[in-house]
Alanine dehydrogenase
Amino acid sequence: MFSHEIHCQYYSQEDLLGAGCLDIRMAMQAAEEAIIAFDQGDVIFPDKIVQIFNDDTQERINCLPATFKTRKICGVKWVSVFPPNPVKHGIQNLSAVIILSEIEHGFPIAFMEGTLCSNVRVGSMGALAAKHLARQDAETIGFIGAGEQAKMHLIAMKTALPSLKRCFVAAKLPSEEAQFLKEMSPILSDMEIVACDSDLRRAVVDADVIVTATSAQAPLLKAGWIKPGAFYSHVGGWEDEFAVAKLCDKIVCDDWETVKHRTQTLSRIYQAGEMTDADIHADLVDILMGRKPGRENNEERIYFNAVGLAYVDVAIAVAMYERAAEAGMGQDLKIQHEMIFEHAHLKDWVRV
Ligand SMILES: NC(=O)c1ccc[n+]([C@@H]2O[C@H](COP(=O)([O-])OP(=O)(O)OC[C@H]3O[C@@H](n4cnc5c(N)ncnc54)[C@H](O)[C@@H]3O)[C@@H](O)[C@H]2O)c1
């Protein structure tokens, strides 16, 4: 007799954190392997499904699946982005859950909190880019935006660039900068973190690495503030003036074909007819595979924009799942005990 039970493991954010899944090195490795697997045709990656509930605020829930054929694992990220949440309700903008399934029988194997994975993915893509595109002696990092992505990006950049010593941060409200300091100082106790009292220029003007991670939709970062040799990781939507990309010696994307159809600054420049495909130096995969050079000297200004590739989220979720399972974390979720018509009491339950 075959068992017809279906089980999967449930992992809360605390289970994942407790198992050591906030590990940027692990995520960078999973991201790099996923990018190479995709390049080699080993990933099924359908278009994402987008449901926008408010055109003005862009409140939305997206469904993003991907399958790794050789690893025989399929996953989906169900992610909501509600930009007014932090200011209006004091709660996070982005929240996600992830389901992983094996593809021998098609059964689910894990149901996981996904905000951690999603934010780690954003940070680790920035870190992977920084490994190849930032000055490896970078000491100063400057942030415009002090929210959830900015915090994860700081951990990620410090992992990729251990030489970082100082962090300047500017946000819309000085209270957000204070919160950033309060939360990040204990984690990165060897870094000096300086709040800039909403002075955006001060946050970035001396920075070897610049990160914008805002919900602004405005040209906050100015080209004149970017020093030679700087690496710029653009995380949000429209948050830098067009002159920034035009000044940079190299522009690298996670996937330019995807980026150019979206609404970030690079897409806006492209759609305005002020940028062509030829202005893009490379996708990150070209640099990972050695098809295009990364940083070639200490004077280059380099612009990186990752729009987010959900197969990378799924790959990082798999790495987190394996680590959490190994650590014995999580709870068993019984999906079904037996098949529908095997239930002895079905006649009492069915409503005809
Ligand atoms: N590229 C990706 O893959 C990816 C993934 C997730 C989120 N994002 C984007 O990253 C951005 C940040 O997300 P988050 O979750 O950190 O949001 P958040 O709401 O936690 O933080 C937003 C930050 O933007 C700052 N900000 C807004 N307007 C500003 C202004 N005029 N001047 C200075 N600072 C300003 C706020 O002060 C705040 O610190 C959003 O645009 C989000 O859509 C990108």
Summary: The first strand starts at residue 6 and ends at 11. The pocket of nicotinamide-adenine-dinucleotide is lined by residues 81, 86, 93-94, 122, 144-150, 171-173, 176, 213-216, 218, 220, 235-237, 306-308 (CB under 6 Å). The two ends are 30 Å apart (CA to CA). The chain has a mean pLDDT of 97.
